[in-house]
Structure formats: C-alpha cells, structure tokens
Amino acid sequence: MVGAGGIGCYYAARLIHAGHECVLVARGKHLQALQQHGLQLQHPQFVFDAPVIATDVAGLCQDYACEDFDLLILAAKSSATIPLMEQLQSWVVTAKTPMLSLQNGVTNEKHIAAIMGMERTAGGLAVKIGAHIVAPGKVEATGEAQIDFGAWPSAAANPGLQPLLAVLSPLFTEAGIPNTLYDKVNYALWRKLVINNGVNPLTALTLMDTQAVTSDPVLRHTVHRMMEETARAANIAGVSLTAEDVEQMFSLICRFDAIKTSMQVDREKGRPMEIEDICGPVIQYCREGGQPAETTELIRTLLLRASALDHR
Q: Which parts of the sequence belong to the Ketopantoate reductase N-terminal domain (predicted)?
C-alpha cells in the first residue's frame, strides 16, 4: 500500500484483517507511529488495532523485491504520483507486478503506465468513503468504502490484466470491501471526478463539510454546475457521461454523510491541495471544446488566492 494515509490505511486494515499480507508505505511521524505502535483505525462497522509492517519508499526498494508482491496499490495524493513513480522506477521495472491506482483524478494511470507499461496498469478509485489521519498511526473512516477498478484504459485495450483483476474482485469482497470491476474504468474515473470537482474545491474554499455545502441553496447550485462542467469535459475527452450520470452523482453526495473532503483537510492542515489534479482536466478539456468551465475556473481561482493568503 504505497501512500498509506487515511484511505490507504483503511483498505490495508481490511486486507490484513482478512488474512492477507500487506506492507504499508508511509512517511514522517505517521510512519514512526505505525512501526512502533501499529495501526489504530475506527470505522462505524469496523475497528482495527494491531501491529502492521510499515516502511518508507527507500526501505521498500531496499528490503523487498518488486516480485515479492502480487499487487501494488497506490493510494497517495495525485500530486505525488509522478515523483513516486520516478522513485520507484528502477525497482518496479525488475518485475511484472501490476499497480492499482486508488486516487483522485483522471491522470494518474497515464503516469503509472509511462513507467510500468499499460499492461501493468489498473485504474481505480475509492468511492463513498471519508478517511483521515487524526493523529500519527490513528485513522478515522466512514462510508461504504467501495472500490471501483478495472484494466486501464479499458478491458478491450488492456485484455491481459483483466483475468487477474477478476480474481481480485472476490478477494476484496471477502475482505469486506464492496467493489465493482469495470470493463471501461475510464468511465468510472470521470464519474468520480464529477463528485470530486463538484465538492472538493468548494469545501476547501468555504471550509464547510459536504452536507453543509449541498444544503446551502446557493452553494448547492454551484456544486451542480461544476458537476455539469465535469461531465462536459469527460465527453470532450471521449468518455460518455450523461445528464443522468450528473444527477446520480449529485443525489449521492447530497445523501452522503457529512464529511470533510481530503482537499478541505489539506487546506486546514496547510498541506498542498489536489487543485490541479481535480479542477485541471475539467478546465483543460472544456477550453479545448470551446466551452470554458466558468464556475470551475472561478472556484479554482478563489481557492488558489485563499491558499496564498493562508501562507502569508
């Protein structure tokens, strides 16, 4: 589990609890706590408090061979994908182990494939989950915590990987991780971006949780508009999303638990935010299509300005 933050720790804990061996790759005080005291995780339907095997990227490359693992799961921030893949490049090219991305955005798989090859690249995302490190070695999570995944960019374009993923799907289910295996995972990635672009930047800007944002009559309309812009960008990018997809994602986030998005938490803690990874593709493709994503561009600009003021 490369990038064992809140999301990564939740899924790792589920897999370990089900009897699978899992190495958590983390850093800083969180890594030290994992190594010294184990992982403590609280979820309404799942509690985990046990020792774990944890290391950093350098330790992973030094103490393990890539071929020791059946699967590499990347759950780091999207902004870390390129530097992490560069660090891992000489290590991953020695084997054929595939990597599954569980990250926000629609560009991570492209960066992974550039190093590992498309035949080893699986796209995926964590759905209906909120998970955050509340103290080093301690994680709180909520939601159904589903995984949507598939061979990237599709099973038809990458047929060799799909049989392994078909084995992985029931394994996730047995570990208490609901999941859907997609033939066209790019559809799932863009569909999740509809939610991420709809609420993440706005919650980070306002410092309001998802329920507060979607309950506000003005901000609720803004969320919907940003979701529509994301669907428009997806269609320009060649991924078909309909008005029905937008309505389903809007309904989902309006009914979901009141959570702080990862982008909101990052701003509160003074950490880099995934602004370009989430807003960037929407803005880029809408501009290319001659229909600028005006609301997304506005919220992005305000958020960048607010972040700059935070650090003055």
A: 2-153
